[in-house]
Amino acid sequence: MSPRMPPLSHWIVQYLIAVVTMTALLTGFDMMGGATFARAVLPALAWAAVASALFIGTRYRNAKRASIRNTLGKK
Question: How is the chain split into domains, by residue range?
Answer without folding.
Answer: 8-72
